[in-house]
Amino acid sequence: MIQFEHVSKRFVTGAKAVEAVKDVSLHIPRGAIAGIIGFSGAGKSTLARCVNLLERPTSGRVVVGGVDLTGLGPAQLRRRREKIGMIFQQFNLFQSRTVYGNVAYPLRRRGISRQARAEKVSRLLDLVGLADKAGAYPSQLSGGQKQRVAIARALANDPEVLISDEATSALDPQTTRSILHLLQELNRTLGITIVVITHEMSVVKEICDRVFVMDGGQIVERGPVFQVFSFPQQAITRGFVDGTSALARLQELLRDPSHPLRLGPEDYLIRLRYLDHSATEALISHVSRSYGVDVNILLGDIELIDGKALGGLVVIVRGTHEQVSGALQHLSQRNVSAEVISHG
Amino acid sequence: MAEWLRPIIPDVVERSDQLWEALVETLQMVGIAGGISVLLGIPFGVLLFTTKRGGILQNRPVHFLLSKFCDVFRSIPYILLAMLLLGLSRLVVGTAIGVKGAIIPLLFGTIPYLGRLTENALAEVPAGMVEAAQAIGSSPLEIIWRVYLKEAIPGIARGVTITLVSLVNFTTLAGVLGAGGLGNFAVMYGHSRNMPDIIVVSILIILALVSLIQAVGTLIARRATH
Ligand SMILES: Nc1ncnc2c1ncn2[C@@H]1O[C@H](COP(=O)(O)OP(=O)(O)OP(=O)(O)O)[C@@H](O)[C@H]1O
Ligand SMILES: [Mg+2]
Q1: Which domain holds residue B169?
Q2: What's the whole-number mean pLDDT along residues A177-188?
Q3: CB B128 within 8 Å of CB A90
Q4: A154 vs B contacts (CB less than 8 Å)
């Protein structure tokens, strides 16, 4: 659906040049929910704005829905943009128009009757759950409601693609979830391909099926969310994963020499990562019984991503070297990777 | 005019016909020049704003010319500008005096002014809104009409108000140069023949006119703010 071929974008301001996007090639298939994650200044917004050519790449090709946008004239490009909806962190609603007026805005140009327009707007407002707010002005709405209006407006032209640039970054966690679930529902019911730009790992985990990690204008890591976050290859990706997990806090504790967590001669501090299974408890007690080791669970941090368990446990396993390595071998056969952090 | 006013403002009552005529001339000048100023000044401001660097109709040479035009005409004191332009007026409308002769010099005072004020009003429209409209697929003309002008109504209304108030001011100066109106009336009788009541009454009428313009402008601006 969306294809970038060697896309670069350079900004020149005075004597300084910033390469905001560097030679990015990517493909997002129809119906996907793709996340683009990175720290501030990584080039995420610039990349997103290249999808509808709000930002024209310095070089490279942008193909959306089989059409090379970079080769289109202004009028043709505008027609294509109608099929690429976009929502923003600051909502960007028209302040002088009511909710109805905002959602109707994209429909004015097309030769449809006032009646058909009214029906379409009310259908869209129903979809985002704001049927009762048609007459309100944006200044009278909460942040979550504003973003719902923006979503309805972005859907008015029946887009094939929806780009969300930090659309939930100004919202509280609960509202964020409700907006993300709305996006997910739109993806399921309307088949819209969604690109979610964010700097929050939790957003990607919540709804994305694939993720692109951006750093310094480049995509440094990519793949299914589950895979990227369970086997992070790059330091920056590990940063995103650890930054949100309790395991990171435990590691801090362990680095603290004054902490009373002392390991005895037969104690192994082990970190288990679940890559697949969710039957965690049974597996632990099974290992404990079969290999004669004591397992003390210090910390559990398991999340469901994409319907799979991701995360792990930090445990102290007490036993002889043979017992422990047997247990670990068994675990690895069950798709649980084990890493010995230290032993006494 | 009412006889009971005669002891208070004798000269005004004596010349009530001329006063009425002067008022009509002032209203004509403000009405005609004001109308044309709005029709030309707002598009002028739109061009000034949109041809700027980074604007949706970015065009360096056009912007440079419009901008210089503005600065030149805005920096010349109005009375001198009006004198300078009387020749042009004679050429275009065939006369340099009366209401008809005053219109062109008045326009050169107001259009660059309203142009700058409109430019400022449009600059207040958040860039994000324009970006949203572009993402929706709006053309530059559509963005001007349906985003910039619509969102900037309060600012433009304030700009038009300020322009009309200075237009009233300009008409009195034009009056001195032979355009008639209340300015001329006040100078001819009040100043030259030392009739202070005429000056006071002229001022009061102009004050009322300005207040009316202000009130209407403020009302429109408030109505359009959401
Ligand atoms: N119009 C512009 N002119 C000049 N430089 C720009 C422009 N837009 C972006 N940049 C630069 O490009 C780089 C990437 O910016 P971008 O906004 O894409 O980052 P981002 O990943 O979206 O960051 P954030 O999370 O803060 O939104 C930054 O160094 C920024 O300063
Ligand atoms: Mg950004």
Answers
A1: 2-224
A2: 95
A3: yes
A4: 135-136
